[in-house]
Amino acid sequence: MWRGEGIGLSGASPTFFLYGEPPHAAGGNFLHLEPLDARSRPANWHIRPHRHEDLHHVFMLSSGGGEIRAEGLLRRAVAPCLILIPAGIVHAFAYVPDTTGRVLTIADDFLRQLCSIEAELAGLFAMPRLVAAGGHAASVLADFDRLALELAWRTPGQAGAVKAALLHILVAALRLDAQGSAAQAGQTSDGRLVARFREMVEARFRSHDPVGAYAAALGVSLSRLRAACRKQASGAPLDVLHARRILEAKRALLYSPNSVAEIAFSLGYEDVSYFVRLFGRREGVSPRRFRMTRVRKDVLF
Hints:
Blueprint: E1 5-6, E2 31-35, H1 37-40, E3 46-50, E4 55-63, E5 65-70, E6 73-78, E7 81-85, E8 91-95, E9 100-107, H2 108-117, H3 121-124, E10 129-132, H4 137-152, H5 158-185, H6 189-204, H7 211-218, H8 222-232, H9 237-255, H10 260-266, H11 272-283, H12 287-296
Antiparallel strand pairs: 1-6, 2-9, 3-8, 4-7, 4-9, 5-6, 5-8, 7-10
Helix pairs in contact: 4-5, 6-8, 9-12
């Protein structure tokens, strides 16, 4: 999961097709693979905040590293690792000079096709992710090399081979991400329960279902869920729910022109004043002040 220090990015960040290229519609099967330094080296290893309307990115860093900013969060990446950036997310990079790797760009329509084959891939692009490759780096790099080879020339069965190679990369990322999450949550029953609860929250946080409904869906008592969350999430289940909604609110405040009331309603809060008070208690500032302050402090490379 993407965690780190909060860093604001401007909601006015430009939209590109590929970085530096004017936006235009991507074909349904659009797929692009290039060396990481193809755009980062000419830009002096600093990629300014931007987004892509309907293109997802998978970065494979084989050496070096740097800082990645996405969704108002800062992470420091150390190779070998994978970085996944969903379509529409404002992101920026400050690489260590001479960082090497590959950049894979996938059209949203193409990703949907792959998700029809393996549904779990959709969750992989639910939010930005930094995934350590560890001892699997050589295997993942080989998958990227295989995909590059298939894309290099037309040959019988190319479409199937490209799709197979791409699925292999994404499934590897999915498994590495799951391994990292399991290690982070711990292998205890409490860790597994809270991990399942967080997955459910991710899918349902706008619905404002009572915590008891989550417990019932998870097949445990409310007291059991509360105890697990206190141990693994340092708070009550309701705190986890509030934190997820406030995260979504901060994204909307940073990257959309919607009013505070519109954002509150979109997150299922019928009482805007309650939402404002909740946001203030958790963040220490009002939603409007958060938006104004973060825009003024925006860091552009």
